[in-house]
Design a protein that fits this description.
The protein has helices spanning about 5-10, 60-70, and strands at about 15-20, 35, 55, 75, 85. By secondary structure, it is of the alpha+beta class. The strands form two sheets. The chain has a three-stranded antiparallel beta sheet with strand order 2-1-3, with no helix packed on it. The protein is globular and about 35 Å long. It starts with 5 loop residues before the first helix and ends in a 34-residue tail after the last strand. The mean pLDDT is about 80.
Length: about 120
């Protein structure tokens, strides 16, 4: 999926911002994301650095985000080593609060039914 960096969207990595995770390849984002707890401007685009695709914001429930942060971590590779939440966190509701979705027509990898994604 082509990345829309902060230089294009204007969304900055401030506390409560939701951002796509990706590998070294800038267009490698799939379904993993992170929620910023505290500002993280190092993830924003700047000259010579593409940055990450911030796409939303937590508008209620940051107390729940802090509880998720307190969960046991481990696993991961390279710079994420030891930082992966070990217990699955199930999102019960996410809602678009403004605007209208603008489908691209591209495949949506998060809709593919993979065995490891089933509950």
């Amino acid at each position: 999926v082509p990345i829309e960096p902060t230089s294009k969207t204007g969304i900055r990595h401030l506390s409560g911002t939701i951002s796509m995770a990706r590998s070294v390849n800038p267009d490698s984002a799939h379904g993993n994301f992170s929620i910023m707890i505290g500002d993280n401007p190092a993830l924003d685009a700047r000259p010579g650095k593409l940055g990450y695709a911030a796409f939303g914001r937590v508008v209620g429930g940051m107390d729940v985000v802090h509880k998720i942060l307190a969960m046991p971590t481990g696993g991961g590779r390279e710079e994420m080593r030891g930082q992966m939440i070990l217990q699955r966190v199930k999102i019960l509701r996410a809602e678009r609060l403004d605007g209208t979705a603008k489908p691209t027509g591209r495949p949506k990898p998060w809709l593919i039914d993979l065995p490891w994604r089933r509950d």
